[in-house]
Each structure stands twice: as C-alpha cells, then as structure tokens.
Amino acid sequence: MFYETPSQRATRFPSTFHITTRFPLSQPPRTLPLKEPLTFEYLGLTLDPYLTMEAAMKHICRKINAAHQTVAAVAHSLRYDSSATDRRIRSSPYVLFRIWQPCVLGFATENLRYLVTNAQIDAVERTLIHSLQRTLHGFTSPHITMIELGITPLILQQALQLVALHFRYTVLHTNTIAAKLYNLRCKFRCSNAHPQHTIENRIAKAHSTLMISITYPGPPPMPRSVTLAKPKNKGKSHTTFLKPIVSAEWLRQIRFKYPHAPLPPFGNASSRLHAHFLLHHLSLCNNLYKLPSYLTMCGHRNPMSLPRLRSHSHQSIPTHMLTIADNQRDDYDSRVCLYCPSGVTGSEIHLILECPATSHVALDLIQFLTTLLYDTCQPDWSTLTTHQQTSLILGDPPSTLPKNIHHVRL
C-alpha cells in the first residue's frame, strides 16, 4: 500500500481500505473504513507515501525550532540570572554559540543526506540560521553569519555526507546488503529509466560538486592519514580529510560571486555581503570550518560589539541599518553618515578611520597596532589600504603574522 504509484492508487477498488466486523453475531456486520496514514516514522526519519521527503524536511524544521526554545531559555538565564561581574562573560557570543551548536546544529545535519531537492535544503538552512541569529541577537545576511561562525552551507554538508556514504559502501562495509544493492544500482545509474533523485545520482553529483570524481564510481583514493588509521576510525579519518576540500569549495563559491574583486581589496561596496567580502577577504584563506580567533578573546566589557561589527548588524554603523526614522533604504550608497553633511556613505571604514566625529575612538588601538606591526616585522601601518587597516581593527590578523602572537594582538 505504501509504495503505490499514483496510477495504481487511482485504479484501486475499493478506493479505501476497510474491515468488516463479525461480532457480535446477533447484529448485522458493519463496515469500518481505515484511515490511511499520510506519514510514518522510521528510525527517527519522517517519510511520506511517495518519498518526496517534504514531511522529513518539515519535521527537521520543527525539531530545530523546538531545540531553539531550550537554547533561548538557557541564554536568558545566563544573561539575567548571573551576577553582574559574570553576566557578560557567560553570555558572550562564544559561550552562546557553543551552547547552540550541540543543541540545534545536529538536528539540521542528522538526516541531511536524505533530502532530495535544493529547495528542501534551503528551507532547513533558513530555519537553522534564523535560530542562530536569534540566539546571538545579530540579524544580518545569512551568508555573513555562516562565514563568521564556520557554519558550512548545508548543500556542501550534504555533499560531504554523501561522499562519506560512498566511502563506507565501497571501502569499509562492502559485504553488507546495503553496499551490494548500492553497487548493483550504480551499474544502472546511466539508464534513462533510473529516477533522478536516487541516492546513486546524488552521490555522483556530490563527487562532482567537491571535484573529486576521478575514481568514481570505484573506491576513492585514500590519503596516508586514512590508510594508517585503525579500521574502526577510517570513516572518521576520511571525513576529516574531506573537510578542507569542502572548505576550499565553499571559498571558491564565495569568491565566484565577486570575480573582479581586487587583491588587496579596495573600491566601493554594493551591499553588506560585498562589504564583508572586501574587508575580510584575506582572512578567508584559512579553514572556514574553524571559529575565528577573535570570538574566544572578545573583551569582557562588551563582548557582542565586535561580532556585530564584523557581521554588519551593529546599529551604530549607518550601512548596517536598513531603516532610519522609519525610512527604508534599499540601496547601500543611500545609507549616509549621520555626522557628515557631505552625504558620505556611513561604512565601517568611514566611521572608524575618516569621520571627524567618530575616528578618535580608534586612535589608541591604531597606535597599538602600529607598534605591534613594527615589532613583528609586518608592513608599516601607513602602507596599508583603508580596507586592510579596518580589517586589522576588526580582528583579522595579518596573513603573515605568526599564530602564537594572535592572542597578543587581540
């Protein structure tokens, strides 16, 4: 019944299932129609009759929202039930993110490989990022939030899971029934009668997305770290090996949006996402899975200020505010500085380095950075562009600065 096609369902007679009562014998038999379930759960995954995975997607979103309520309650308690001295430390963005990550993120990635369309993945991703933004009280572009906190786009995360599944079927557990069926179905994958959204086609697409389809559909090449790992740890080692590949593909997609972006960056931004790319372009060369170092070293006085400045959601920067006095400003260039009469765009660069009313705030920090650049044999502060200077002020270390000095700079 569950695997009926629409044509089979239309020709079924009778159209509904029913049972006939035989007791008590003193009464005539009655016909009771049976209600057909629209969905059912199997190993925590909600399935629908035609396996479109729409029910699974909606169930994942509901679990994310339910988990967010728990995180919100904990965050509220940390913020308002702690002592005044510990309140800012306990409710810092790093602490809130570390609470949110195990409670919410797992629900989005647990059954991600079963979703069959990009629209379903996008719906889960929107729910996930909205939960994170509400937790940190920083409402900006979802792409900026994901870049700042190392949340991989779910479509790439799904590709990683599918490639890891292929590794299990072709290397680790080749004698299981699932592996035998997978290898058998791969032989008929190129057939016109093969459905488009099958697991075999999606695994092949995942290899193409990550650009590692050289040996597909055969076993993938194993690096030395995977070969030398214990048998029970090979799957985990292979996933760790894939993460830099996913990070490189993520970075390629980010840069693809701005193919003419100069290096070192300069020029005028056209949106908050473009401005974030120009300011933090050099810091994106690292593994995007890792949290930026500034998150663990935010000052205790106001730990939320720096993440909001970097994520373009600070209410003191005109370009971060979409409305002023109920006047919506859709164009980035129309968000002018409130202190300058000349109509200059009120970006981070202008308010931190150029605006006569606010630039004095960063003078002590600029003096410290100038000394630090000199002591570490880095380029002089005056030789840097305004984008590079603002990037340093907002917590991005120079690309040539040794990592053991990062904590001193921050």
Salient structural properties:
single chain; mainly alpha; 17 helices; globular; 4% strand; 410 residues; two-stranded antiparallel ribbon; 48% helix
Question: How would you describe this protein?
Answer:
The chain has 410 residues and is mainly alpha-helical. Among the domains are: 37 residues, no CATH class; 99 residues, no CATH class; 88 residues, no CATH class. The strands form 3 sheets. The protein has a two-stranded antiparallel sheet with strand order 1-2. It has a two-stranded antiparallel sheet with strand order 3-4. A hairpin with a 2-residue loop joins strand 3 and strand 4. It is globular and about 95 Å long. 28% of the residues are buried. The mean pLDDT is 81.
Beta-strand residue percentage: under 5%
Write the H/E string, N to C.
HEEEEHHHHHHHHHHHHEEHHHH
- Give me the oligomer status: single chain
Distance from N terminus to C terminus (CA atoms, Å) equals: 63 Å
Instruction: Specify Rg, calculated over alpha carbons.
Output: 27 Å
Strand order of the largest sheet: 1-2
Sheet having the most strands: 2 strands, antiparallel
What's this model, at a glance?
This protein has 17 helices and six strands. The protein has about 400 residues and is mostly helical. Among the domains are: about 5-40, no CATH class; about 160-255, no CATH class; about 315-320 and about 330-410, no CATH class.
